[in-house]
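Priority: medium. Attachment 1 of 2:
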């Protein structure tokens, strides 16, 4: 069985891992933390051990093993290098995506290396760390590939500057495995013996966590968030209960080498360690950026030459963003030639205050204009992270007097204008896997306002735009929200009473807009009213409704009239995250209720049905030269034994046992059904001990190839 070289470059993930402070504490205790370093174990003022990052991507690593087709019996974790970009928050979801990057051949006797790389983002959109993995595949060498580079760490010829002793408990792996690495080699004495060990061994990554705590303690105590790189090579296995010592040599500023030894045998178990950490200056810089900051962020604000847009642009720039100040410079109704002065003046204001900005005079109302605005951001600053669709005009008339020109002019600026700018920006954000988009609606649209049908329709169109775009942007951390501002500007000077205008400064709207544009923004697809420093949320709510008729014959209008009190009721009302969810109650209204206690899975696929279907799932074209007998021993009330004999391109399945199976597969009935229906990953089932494989382990890897359900 050869390595699958086609796996190189194929995307793995996103793999998501939600976590809370309890996961951090469990991990910390798994790697030996306790009262001596309580900051890792007590939820008040909790700090995160940076090596938690690897415990969080275990599932990704399993996928690397599966996709590269490496022989499971020979896989060892070879090296691990982690580069940290931002401190790990104490809760949230980690989203990991990456690929196998290289496969190197060390020779038929030595084995092969499978290298993979993965970026992990936090659910707040921040990139937290990049993991570089090397799997050592002892049984896959000799495929004729390049031998690859080798990284050597030359330890100084002097005693270590620091030594940290630790005494992992004999039970340490039983705690550590609860963080995700539940490979039975670390828990099951029988499995460990069958794998050639006296008893279960320590996880290499558990010792890795001990080493990580040790280097922090001696090099930057109490500040784990300073770590910027942590690299190790796993050189030897270790039994739990043996004492270890991490030896550290401080090199240049911000860099040290380390290794961890078995204190009893003096064998090196973690070798070639490199740790790097941030300088005081870099830490200060990071602290300055605390709170809501937009350093390195690029924002496009349309209609930023006056009113609300101007204040958004000034405030974002004050908080570190680079701004494209877009404004056509027309009259309040959009008429006139346009002028460069409004945008230029705001750019000047920003620059005078020490910020960075560039002007754009294009109209949002055309496709070319929208593209040119976004191009200005990309050409000047390399990307676009934030778009505030704010440009606006008014052409108020009652519907009776609303001619198509006035209808279209308002639609073109507000609704189509948002499309013209947002689409090219969205494409750029998607590439960068980050974005914040703001639409500007209005109370006129949300609630209605006499004489503004064009404006109200355009403004509500934006809410529909947001409702769908929030779904399309979600997996790339693009959040889309809408605000309905109230502020004194030239658009409102004739509409609002003068005494109110004084209190309605755009500065009182901007804080919410900045928050929604920030990395910290926790919502997507939400709408808020904002004015005078008062903010509240607006949402669509759906009532419980009523069933009219039997769902077979269409009901009469009279029957609807009879039920109308119930139909129109909003008590209780519910919000739905998307159209499919909102459709649910309608479907449920007529579907027969599931019999109590019936499990859907049970009602569907069964173990017997899987074996009945096995001959049909057999891929004869992949079986040439294969001669193998699989015996499946499925435990549990719905289990039994079956054999599958594959020979000369045919497959025969029979109930019962075989005298001399090539490979035996033992599994529980529920887990087996889950695995076949794709709910349980085969690699994870194996490493967690849910599948036990006897006989020829290598041949078990043929199953996935020979049978496709
Ligand atoms: P404003 O008139 O002071 O600012 C709007 C800016 O958009 C102007 O500088 C104008 O030149 C620019 N603009 C117009 N058409 C453009 C185009 N085609 N391309 C580029 N720029 C263009 O108005 P204000 O009040 O600051 O309005 C900002 C947004 O807030 C608008 O979308 C408006 O509908 C909305 N809004 C404002 C409310 C308020 O109380 N001020 C209430 C509800 C919504």
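Attachment 2 of 2:
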């Amino acid at each position: 069985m050869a390595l699958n070289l086609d796996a190189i470059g194929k995307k793995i993930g996103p793999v998501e891992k939600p976590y809370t402070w309890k996961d951090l504490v469990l991990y910390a205790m798994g790697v030996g933390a306790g009262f001596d370093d309580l900051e890792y174990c007590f939820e008040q003022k909790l700090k995160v051990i940076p090596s938690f990052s690897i415990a969080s991507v275990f599932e990704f690593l399993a996928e690397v093993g599966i996709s590269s087709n490496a022989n499971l019996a020979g896989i060892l974790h070879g090296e691990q290098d982690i580069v940290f970009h931002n401190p790990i928050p104490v809760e949230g979801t980690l989203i990991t995506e990456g690929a196998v990057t290289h496969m190197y051949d060390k020779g038929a006797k030595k084995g092969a290396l499978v290298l993979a790389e993965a970026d992990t983002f936090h659910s707040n959109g921040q990139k937290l760390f990049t993991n570089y993995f090397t799997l050592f595949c002892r049984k896959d060498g000799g495929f004729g590939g390049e031998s690859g580079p080798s990284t050597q760490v030359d330890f100084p010829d002097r005693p270590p500057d620091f030594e940290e002793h630790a005494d992992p408990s004999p039970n340490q792996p039983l705690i550590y495995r609860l963080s995700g690495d539940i490979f039975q080699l670390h828990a099951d004495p029988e499995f460990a013996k069958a794998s050639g060990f006296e008893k279960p061994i320590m996880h290499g990554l558990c010792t890795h966590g001990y080493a990580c705590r040790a280097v922090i303690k001696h090099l930057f105590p109490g500040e784990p968030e300073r770590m910027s790189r942590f690299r190790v090579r796993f050189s030897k296995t270790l039994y739990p209960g043996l004492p270890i010592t991490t030896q550290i040599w401080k090199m240049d500023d911000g860099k040290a080498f380390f290794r961890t030894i078995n204190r009893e045998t003096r064998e090196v178990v973690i070798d070639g360690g490199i740790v790097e950490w941030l300088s005081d200056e870099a830490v200060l810089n990071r602290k300055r950026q605390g709170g809501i900051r937009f350093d390195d962020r690029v924002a496009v604000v349309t209609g930023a030459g006056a009113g609300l847009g101007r204040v958004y642009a000034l405030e974002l720039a004050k908080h570190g963003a680079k701004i494209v100040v877009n404004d056509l410079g027309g009259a309040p109704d959009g008429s006139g030639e346009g002028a460069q002065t409004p945008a230029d003046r705001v750019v000047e204001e920003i620059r005078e205050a020490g910020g960075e900005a560039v002007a754009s005079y294009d109209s949002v109302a055309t496709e070319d204009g929208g593209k040119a605005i976004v191009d200005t951001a990309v050409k000047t600053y390399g990307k676009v992270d934030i778009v505030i669709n704010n440009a606006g005009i008014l052409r108020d008339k009652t519907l009776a007097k609303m001619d198509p020109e006035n209808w279209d002019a308002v639609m073109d600026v507000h609704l189509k204008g948002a499309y013209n700018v947002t689409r090219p920006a969205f494409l750029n954000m998607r590439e960068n896997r980050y974005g914040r988009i703001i639409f500007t609606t209005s109370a006129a649209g949300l609630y209605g306002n006499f004489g503004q049908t064009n404006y109200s329709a355009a403004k509500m169109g934006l809410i529909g735009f947001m409702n769908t775009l929030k779904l399309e942007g979600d997996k790339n951390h693009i959040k889309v929200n809408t605000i309905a501002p109230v502020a004194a500007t030239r658009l409102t000077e004739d509409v609002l009473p003068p005494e109110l205008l004084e209190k309605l400064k755009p500065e009182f709207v901007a804080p919410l807009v900045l928050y929604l544009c920030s990395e910290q923004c926790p919502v997507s697809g939400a709408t808020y009213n904002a004015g005078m420093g008062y903010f509240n949320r607006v949402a669509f709510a759906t009532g419980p409704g009523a069933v009219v008729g039997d769902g077979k014959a269409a009901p009469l209008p009279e029957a609807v009239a009879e039920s109308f009190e119930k139909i129109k009721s909003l008590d209780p009302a519910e919000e739905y995250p998307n159209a499919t969810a909102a459709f649910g109650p309608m479907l449920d209204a007529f579907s027969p209720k599931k019999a109590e206690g019936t499990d859907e899975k049970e009602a569907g696929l069964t173990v017997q049905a899987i074996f009945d279907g096995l001959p049909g799932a057999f891929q004869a074209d992949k079986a040439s030269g294969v001669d193998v007998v699989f015996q499946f021993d499925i435990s549990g009330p719905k289990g039994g034994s079956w054999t599958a004999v594959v020979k000369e391109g045919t497959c025969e399945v029979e109930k019962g046992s075989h005298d001399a199976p090539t490979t035996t597969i033992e599994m529980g009935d529920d887990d087996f059904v889950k695995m076949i229906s794709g709910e349980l990953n085969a690699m994870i089932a194996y490493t967690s001990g849910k599948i036990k494989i006897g006989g020829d382990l290598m041949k078990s890897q043929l199953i996935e190839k020979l049978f496709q359900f």
